[in-house]
Amino acid sequence: MRSPFLARVRTPLRAQVRTPFRTRRIRLLFGSLCLVLLPVVATSGPAGLGPQAAYAAGGEGSEVTVSGAGEFADLKVTVGQTRNLVGQVVKISWTGGKPTVSDTAYSANYLQIMQCWGDEATGPAADQCQFGASSALGAAGNQAGAYTNTRQLNYGANLQDAEHEPLPPPTPSGISFAPFRTVGGDPVSPGNWNEFYDVNSTNEVPYARTNARGAGEVWFETQTAVEAPGLGCGSAIPGTRSPATGRGCWLVIVPRGEKEVDGSPYTAQSSGQLQSSPLSPANWKQRIVVPLGFEPLGSYCPIGAEERGIIGSEMAAEAVTRWQPALCQTGGKAIYGYAQVPDETARVKLLSGTPGLVFLGRPAPADPVRKPVYAPVALSGITIGFFIESQAGFQAPDEVRARNGTRLGSLRLTPRLVAKLLTESYQDGNSRFAESTAKNPVNLGRDPEFMRHNPTYAGLDFGGKLGDALVPQPLADTTRQLWEWVSRDPAAREFLDGTPDNTGAHGDAAYAGMAVNPNYRGLALPLDTFPKSDPYCQPFPEEHPESPLCIQDKHPYATDMHAAARAASRGDTLARTSWDATATPPTYKKDPPQLAGSRAVLAVTDTATADRYGLVRAELLNAGGAFVAPEPGALIAAANARKAGADGVSSPDPAAADPAAYPLTVLTYAATVPADLTEAEGKDYGAMLAYAAAQGQTPGVSAGSLPHGYAPLPEALRAQTRAAAQRVSTEAGKKPTPAPEPSAPTAPAPGAVGGTPSGTGGAAASGGSGPAGTGTSASGASTAGGGSAAGGAAAPGPAAASPSTPAGAAGATGTTGTTGAPAAQATGTTPDWVVGAIRNVLLICLVVGALAAFAGPVLPRYLPGALLWLRSLRGAAGGAPVASGGPADLPADWATHKKTGPRDWSPPDQD
Hints:
By secondary structure, the chain is an alpha+beta fold. The protein is built from 20 helices and 25 strands. Strands 10, 11, 12, 13, 19, 20 and 23 form a seven-stranded mixed beta sheet that branches. Strands 4, 5, 6, 8 and 9 form a five-stranded antiparallel beta sheet that branches. Strand 1 (64-67) and strand 2 (76-79) form a beta hairpin. Residues 1-24, 33-59, 746-839 and 874-911 have low confidence and may be disordered.
């Protein structure tokens, strides 16, 4: 007699035998549909990573010097790079100008610089230039003429352009704006800014100061069609195929003298300043133009070439993207797409069974099965990049005032100063209303410790600035390395533990008594992120009491180091502090960049990206007691001082005493598991590694060279990469011969209790004689079984994870359980290898679904008999009788006494 529970468990299976004919027809129809869809799924979606635009961050061989004409004939302007351009910063310098009138304003004698598109050999027209959006900030903070940074062409009855060209149709308010014409002929709203650029995106330089010697310099951001779609620089030219270069553009410099568009002196104006726009015809006639050549955007690799996905650290991004165009034109002509992901994601990918090629700074945890090969490919560093312009205080002497607006070229930081910047301990790095930092200096410029190491900053005032640094949000090994450098310094560690900087073993009585923000006191280091722990929010009880201003709005993260560097180069803190009551819902909107001449921004970034965006790199105090900048020699010195490690992966030594070594040097490795590659993949990845060790280490500006900011690898490291390339090419697809497994004992040892060897995920029972197994806990941490006290010794546990590996990631090497590794956090877009994996899962699901649909009507009828037949064979092979289909070592009436449950997979009774 069956129990009611047993009957309930078996009812669904029994019902399948009596499935109506119509239901079976529906299953067959569904199965057919799945098979029809198989080719669609198999061929749709991205097959791999596509090509990316190449970066060319150098400029040797393309520097150009041009001269003015007429009253500006003595002016000579030099543009540091004019070819192989991407979204980057180039230096523009000049001599032979007249000094700008006033050291705090722009009354006369200055330059105005903009980027334009145009297909004519003589240069662009005024309506093809990106200019005017900076007027949203006013005219240099009301320190220049009212219309000098606008597109407005009418200035009232008292100021008429001497060229007498017809004005564009006025707006309803009566203002005639120079129109903006896009490269694509798109409709554009009239005004100083429009749908294609605004104050937060424009690269115009409305005011460039000339010093008392008649010279000056600015750093200008060249923008591609990605940053400035209205200009289209670098985009493919219609009618061409696989362009060697992208669409060219123009740099336009409009010198402003001492005369207005009607010939009158600037002193005749009511404000005592020039008033007109550089786009006015009389001013436009004086323009100086320089053609700009851009790297192509889009497809520059052979159509149909094999695509090889690469993912990994941001530290390698500049190098890999520079190598891509050359790699896909040589050898196997494979396309190597690069997806930037956190280092931990790269480590998980490396041991996933489909490693591709990953780039990382620290090795993956030891794995008993998969043996990665590591190859050093890039030597660079973490840096505090800065863009700081001299800003004299109210009581500064004349010689300091004369430097107003000029860029400062030095900055020295100790680990304790960096700790102050990264812990919201300055008032301007937190809020001047926060009690937690109310007794601390407002910023670096008011900190006596900073001034001791940076005497050239005396007399300057950076009100509201230099209280913190832009930091990237993603988890990263480089962040951990920076914190390790801070934590190993006794003075910084003392400060973080709560000792003010004027007391303690490493304090100085001359310092300000600055203490760490209490929300960071005792901070446990190292970390792989930059916390923002102060909970203070500035209230606005009358204007918007429900929306206070908090740290993530006032001091937000950058999306990555690239974004941090680009923002700093534009004088942009990324802050959102302006309340917009008209938004839906009302919110804080992004602040515009700081005004030209009064910019001061710091950013944590990598040396290659800092160079790309023209940031000056701070000198950091190393363990040898010297301040060192991340120049190639200092990076190589630090690489030679690294500590050897397993698998050929060295680690940085923050305690290295070489005074020439840069303390935050980073050596990036490429890694793969050859046995998990196909032969074709191994050949292509090996070719890339061989390239990285050869041509890829030649500094230069063209595609395929090593970008500035990296140091060429020393020969010993190149030899290691060449050897790794050979292994990847020759060992791809060759699975290692597994070691023979020890045979299990046929009977327990005398006196043993439960003495069966533990398998994967288990532990040997007390007194057991077998080796202990390894497994994965629910949290993803590996666990090891223990051996017996009398019958055998416990086997070693699983290899320890890397210090940078979270507890969950250690479980990634286990055979069961769920890993605790963080999900991929690719910047920008989801890596295509993830999309490809999802596509493969869908393909498998459709295949299984089709088989299940066809087999469903017949499986319940024949499966029970097949299982009984298999049991009979099993019993015959064992030489022992099998009663009622039960195993040989159980009683004959096992089916009567067994209990049903989740693991009871026995067939249903047959009537």
